[in-house]
Design a protein that fits this description.
This protein has 422 residues and is of the alpha/beta class. Helices cover 59% and strands 11% of the residues. The strands form 3 sheets. Strands 4-3-2-5-6 form a 5-stranded mixed beta sheet. It has a two-stranded antiparallel ribbon with strand order 1-7. A two-stranded antiparallel sheet has the order 8-9.
């Protein structure tokens, strides 16, 4: 998401939309004042187009401030194509808190919510930021990397289920098939769904299978053949075996489709990322790789006016903690209201960076030595990485591990003393 300040004097009217799958409640008020106007719009391209162009003609093409309780989806994708709309995405929690301020019962309805959204943008627009879409390639990259992650999560769930099923009747396959989220494992289980099928296969057939999947170590192959010869059935109960085979086949077919989809996403992302103006910049970070580098690039975007400072990204992503203070009480805790995928991206990068970045590993180990839990230590490390990434991104310079370590020594950082000892 890209945001920017808009000159509010340009805005001719304010609109609040409470969206739904089938229809949307709309509340409008002119900037100069006047009666509230309410209507209901059907979710169709023709209806939205007619309504949007009607407002453009009515207000002579002047800007219209529009508040909506979402950051993505079919409605906002449709609305962003009309340049006279200045869109203000409202966090659902913000709307809920605003609603509570005027309704003790916290009663909720589509029409009242549309009015509250209109009121928020009309009365408090100086504290809101308008949404400005990134360029098409950046938005495409953002969608692809996020959807790829969803597919990977589905693969993880399926492999966990497959592991559970195999343990019921065919535990040897967990080792013999190889990593379950691999093409080799899918082919192995399709070819030999039971231990009995595997034991009937000729050794030459099994060797040829492993050769085709890149396993050529003779000693390892002989070990596996010996393991197959000596394998014992966990159960011969026909009911258990038949039911388990069916469950396994369903999972394997789903897994095959998901692995193919992951490969397709990888190809699309790689081709798109190679054309990205900041590709080399994000590739320069330790352990960014083919998966995380595009995710980091999509997190920052290409518009250098998007973020005023690193703190904005740290807060928006949920990496920065939130402080709650009242009287003598002061509590610092994890920020929960944030885009989960964005936070996950920075957390996963921090975890990977420990493998190759000496200062990152030193900092992480120092946090753990203080008794900080694993995930909290990763968040603290991600917090530091965002500051570094922001500087590189803002100045369009590649990251240098040596240059950063030198900067730590010049600044007399506590991390520097640990690096010196290493």
């Amino acid at each position: 998401m890209n945001t920017e300040r808009i000159d509010t004097e340009e805005i001719a009217a304010f609109v609040g939309i409470d969206w739904a799958d089938g229809e949307h409640e709309v509340c409008l008020m002119e900037a100069e004042g006047g009666p509230l106007e309410r209507m209901c719009l059907k979710q169709s391209a023709e209806t939205l187009s007619e309504w949007a162009h009607g407002l453009r003609d009515r207000f002579g093409g002047r800007k219209i401030g529009l508040a909506i309780e979402q950051r993505k989806g079919p409605l906002i994708y449709a609305l962003m194509s009309y340049e006279w709309f200045v869109i203000y995405p409202i966090n659902p929690k913000s709307l809920a808190r605003y609603r509570e301020a005027f309704s003790v019962s916290n009663a909720k309805g589509d029409r009242p919510d549309a009015e509250l959204l209109m009121e928020m943008v009309g009365s408090h627009r100086d504290r809101l930021r308008a949404w400005v879409p990134e360029d098409e390639d950046t938005r495409l990259l953002q969608m692809l990397v996020e959807e790829r992650r969803r597919v990977v999560d589905q693969v993880t769930r399926l492999t966990n289920r497959l592991t559970s099923v195999l343990k019921e009747y065919y535990p040897q396959a967990l080792e013999l098939a190889g990593e379950l989220k691999s093409e080799q494992a899918v082919d192995f289980l399709t070819k030999w769904p039971t231990l009995e099928d595997l034991k009937r296969a000729r050794p030459a057939t099994i060797e040829r299978f492993y050769h085709q999947h890149g396993v050529r170590n003779k000693e390892k192959l002989q070990e596996r053949l010996a393991q197959i010869r000596g394998a014992k059935h966990l159960t011969r109960d026909r009911a258990i075996v038949r039911a388990s085979v069916l469950k396994m086949r369903v999972a394997v077919e789903q897994l095959r489709a998901l692995l193919k989809a992951t490969g397709q996403f990888d190809v699309e992302i790689e081709e798109l990322f190679e054309q990205h103006p900041d590709a080399n910049l994000f590739k320069s970070f330790p352990c960014a790789g083919k998966v995380l580098a595009p995710r980091l690039a999509s997190a920052f975007g290409t518009d250098r006016q998007r973020w005023d400072n690193a703190a904005e990204i740290q807060n928006f992503s949920g990496i920065a903690p939130v402080t709650r203070a009242s009287g003598q009480t002061r509590v610092v805790e994890k920020r929960r209201a944030c885009p989960k995928f964005l936070r996950q991206t920075f957390m996963e990068y921090a975890a990977q960076s420990v493998k190759k970045s000496l200062w990152a590993r030193s900092y992480y180990n120092a946090m753990r030595a203080k008794g900080v839990k694993h995930r909290a230590a990763l968040r603290a490390l991600a917090y530091k990485w965002i500051r570094i990434m922001y500087r590189c991104w803002k100045e369009r310079i590649a990251y240098s591990e040596a240059a950063h370590q030198a900067a730590l020594f010049r600044a007399n950082s506590p991390i520097a003393s640990r690096l010196a000892s290493l």
